[in-house]
Design brief:
554 residues; mainly beta; Immunoglobulin-like; 45-stranded parallel sheet; 2 helices
Amino acid sequence: MMTSWIAALVVSGTIGSDTTWTAADSPVLVEANTVVIQGVTLTVQPGVVVRFAPATILMVNGGLVARGTPADPIRFTSNQPSGAPGQWGRILFNDTATDASFDEAGEYQSGSILEWAVVEYAGGELPAVHVESAAPFLHRCLVSRNAGPGIGGTVGPPLSLRAVLVSHNASGVVVSFSTTVAGSTGVVLDSVSIVDNAGDGITATALHGTGNTLELKNSAVLRNGGDGVDSAPYFGSSMINLRATGNFVASNGGRGLAVATAHNVTVIHNLVQGNGGDGVFIRGRDQVPGVVAQNLIIENQGKGMTLSGALSVTNNVIANNAGNALGAAVTGTVSGNAIVGNGGPVSITYPGQFMGNTVAANAAGTEAMILLYANASLASNNLFPRAAGYTLENLLHNTAPQVNAPDNWWGTADGAAIDALIYDFLDNGQRGFVSRSPHLGAPSTDAPLSPPTGLLVSRAGDAVSVSWAVNPESDVTGYKVYYDADGVFPYDGTGADQGPSPVAVGNTSSFVLTGLPPGIRHVTVTAVDGEAGDALDFFHGHESWPSRPVAIPE
């Protein structure tokens, strides 16, 4: 067969005994479909290049151990002179393949593995690395420029991906959870980067039951054309356990993190930023308690968060999203959240507890900032009114029990002014009544700090003057001035005479920055209290979310 390369070894058909491809065999040409039979192991040594003729598949019914090194990675690639997606088939691990095994510390011990390997230019409709109820270990691999999904298939035993880069494929990781394997199934993606794929970054489909786990930790899901993470049931009774911790999910074309039927939810310490749709969408299907805590959900083009189920929603920042701030149909507590600067209201559609939150600067047109569709309890919140419009609207019928909303700060201590901020039975006889007594005479110091308001920026030569209104909270002890080039969090500019962003300026309401380098175009300000001082201050409310960045005049 004519090839574009001179192959040192040409293979096809059956590999029926333990075989090793060495550097001396490289490049290896797979000229026709090849199968590693059950009970047999193919070992590929560091530095080997494996080239595939068009449409050819390497089927693994036994073991594949391909362990490269940083200096000598293994490469599975096309046999064509100029590589392009779809020029060969795929690597297929069937259900008889030897699964990877690990010790108690999670370190690889034996079984099928791809490590320091590149898989490129493969695929079609099926993934380039394709599993069918198999569980090889993928570690420090690059799966890129394939015509179909980079990695995927039907997951039986737990599938582990660690420190893998999946990029520039038709989609990133596409898995469905098997009903044919006893026990729980799942996929663990640890420290992976799923970036710049044309479709979704991660797609997970549950076929049946509740033992299906999608675990994503310490990973980046960025700039994919569809959703960052999309998970849905195949049958109505199927659900997915979601564990998402410490991830950066940003700049995807669709939603950031979406799970249509969730069971046993843990979503903690994620940054979900700048996605083209909603930030987080989680629909719980049962009353198994879950937690959504200490996440930054910011600058998304859709809604900030839409949540349902038995979730506890605590200490999140939901800020500067273009759509509604929060849709909460949760039976747990919504507490300690900073909900600021969003394009629409908070909608509460289930009778849970909404307490200790700060709600401020959410533009909502003619709508109130908080819409009540259920008899929830609202207490101990700081509710900063807009310049016009209602703060709270009760949409329940007048036959519903009264809504209790005691001990809230409404931006004023005047009872008549507070009543004017609430749309209820007193305004429309068809609506239910809201009892707001007693009300606070000053902002609660237990709720998160609010962003400073009234930010003004001017320039006189090299000096950029910044001023703002003093925060109303009694526990504010100072402010920080942030500056950067693009006005997008984390506002991490450098070069000012006063030091890198942020600059702690003390308990003042104005400051002058000097020496800003060219390209620094935006300034913003936060408030801090006496307990501020660590990386979790935004979540614990000890540092406010920044005010809307203001452009520095030319």
